[in-house]
Specification:
single chain; Spore Coat Polysaccharide Biosynthesis Protein SpsA, Chain A; 14 helices
Amino acid sequence: MRLNVAYATGEVYAKHAGISMISLFDNNKNFEEIYVYIIDNGISQNTKKKLLEISFEYNRKIIFIEFNDICDIRLFKDVGNYSKIIFSKMYLHKIEEIEKIIYIDCDMIVKDSFYELWEMSMEKYLVAGVRMPTPIQYIQKFSSGNNDKYINGGFILFNLENWRSFNVEEKIKEFMVRHKNDIYIEENIICNICKDSILVLHPKYNLNGLMIAFNSFQIKKISDEKNYYSQKLIEEAKNFPTIIHFSSEIYNRPWFRNCNHPYKDEYLKYLKVSPWSSMKLEKDNVQLKIRIRNALRIYLPFNIYLIIRKLLKSA
């Protein structure tokens, strides 16, 4: 059986994509073939050589695709701290002769096999992903229409057959016309245009900092979302994650010094066996506002923390 996976990165995050890729290969030995498609936004030849060395070691295949060959950067305006490469995942249907693909963010480590997910029926769906707790007023702004089906863009299974027949590029352009005065990212577009064709996955496929730091009740309070995962499912994800997402909304990332993420050793484990094993950990660049918010999370009662969090978020 063949597994198709995509990453999108420039030079800065390419090493993290490579470390993630080692974890992917290490935990998916039950696939006969793994093809990794890397959307390349300026990766150096030296780094490409290292990525290819990883694929050769595991007898897997890497295909580099130039960012400008798959996605017209002129379509997308500035998105603040996010790179425009995040939009490239919406154009994976341009990769010919494959029916489905899993997109993985570079800041993710794979902890278990994708076999069960890959065998899952996607006949009725365009995409599958893990719920992202998002304030309902924010979702309504983009008219996605269903708070229960807002998924995180970091890990998505795309049904490319349905994606191609859906006339997705025209749908993307229509979204951008409607929201030309708004700031949005790719998951806003995906959740909007896919609407009722989204399959919600078990949270083990995208264990993030919120799930680790808060319980289900607290997450619902933070996001004003009533239909989030149960505590039982969150505990299952924490105990047996398939994907660990090292996003920075709660904990700092594992390639920073003094990282406080409970799962940081999972990243460091694969860093040590990677071509970047001698890489020095970076100085923490977490914003002061986030530092304050996270310190308050530890020392204050949740209800007081919640009030201050919302004030800081709006500041």
